[in-house]
Amino acid sequence: MPSEIVKECSKALAERGLCIAFAESATAGRLSAEFSLCSESGTVLKGGLVCYDAFLKQTILHVPADMIRTFTPESAEVTQELAHRLQTFIPADIHMAVTGLTCPGGSETAEKPVGTVFLHVYIKGKSIGIREVFKGNPEEIVLKAVDRAAEAILAELPKHFQHTDDQLLI
Fold first, then answer.
1. pLDDT tens for residues 53-88?
2. How many other CB atoms are there within 10 angstroms of residue 23's CB atom?
3. Residue 168: what pLDDT?
4. 159: pLDDT strictly greater than 90
5. What are the two backbone dihedrals, phi and then psi, of residue 91, each rounded to the nearest 5 degrees?
6. Are 57 and 25 contacting, i.e. CB atoms less than 8 angstroms apart?
């Protein structure tokens, strides 16, 4: 069952006639799955790509290999590039990418510990990057990332899409 914030986000998207697409690494499809469980999913969720491995980031969404080598697969820069390139792959109103470190064995450092999650969203041409560090086991980190993604979208909707009971103003 999706969290209340995911349900609220899905409903807000549906009320505005908007759809969303995801490029997921750290969440490995969980973000799409949570949105798919909402009653509005048929009108809101366009789809998602799971590109957990860096090779898929390169071959499917064409993130340059040198960018991944320079910044690591779990970085703000690569996450932004995933979201940017997703726009040409899946047509939607909102495009979001997520990468991060849910368990040891990735590119963790003292400055980027396990629990670090990067989100990037494109909405009406605006590019928004988010970095969070969550505590918990891998599933808890993923679920916190899913909720943070929904919160980020909800925070931006009023800035770009006004909704009234009688009409939608874009």
1. 999 999 999 999 999 999 999 999 999 999 999 999
2. 31
3. 46
4. no
5. -70, 130
6. yes
| Domains annotated on the chain, with CATH | 4-169 (3.90.950.20)
Sole residue written with tokens 């918990």: 136
Distances in whole angstroms, Cα of residue 15 to Cα of each of 18, 37, 80, 166, 168: 8, 17, 27, 11, 8
Residue 4 host element (H or E): helix 4-15
Q: Answer whether 61's CB lies under 8 Å from 49's CB.
A: yes
Q: In what order do the strands lie in the sheet with 126-133?
A: 45-50, 20-24, 94-100, 116-123, 126-133
pTM exceeds cut of 0.85: yes
- What is the rounded CA–CA span in Å between residue 166 and residue 36? 27
Q: What are phi and psi of 32, to 5 degrees?
A: -60, -45
Task: Judge whether residue 164 has pLDDT over 60.
Answer: no
